[in-house]
Design goal:
Blueprint (H helix, E strand, L loop, with lengths): L4 E2 L21 E5 L3 E3 L6 H5 L11 E6 L2 E6 L1 H9 L4 E8 L7
Parallel strand pairs: 1-3, 3-5, 4-6
Antiparallel strand pairs: 2-6, 4-5
């Protein structure tokens, strides 16, 4: 299996980082694909195969850590492309809701 799990929704509370630029303050790090749970089960092949898939957005996946799970919120196409190329990990920005102060 490529990912730890495949989901269809965000199980964590809203975090307010809705635009790609909102994630820029989080430093990227390497994330193993088999530790990620997706929040989408479907992918548009155009996004996967597009040569400019990161032209208008962040080049890093967006991941939310909640209740000790890592949820792949944005960048499913990047993660799947990495898996198809035989890479076990991908760069991503992680928002840690486990340590974030309550709103």
């Amino acid at each position: 299996m490529i990912f730890k799990g495949v989901g269809d929704e965000r199980p964590y509370p809203p975090h307010g980082l809705d635009e790609p630029g909102d994630w820029a303050h989080l430093p990227p790090r390497m994330l193993r694909l088999d530790e990620l749970v997706t929040v989408r089960s479907q992918l548009d092949l155009r996004a996967l195969l597009a040569s400019d898939s990161t032209f208008y957005g962040d080049i890093f996946c967006h991941v939310v850590k909640w209740q000790d799970e890592l949820y792949l919120e944005d960048g499913l196409h990047r993660a799947l492309r990495a898996a198809l190329q035989g890479r076990p990990a991908v760069h991503g920005r992680v928002l840690d809701l486990d340590t974030a102060p309550s709103r």
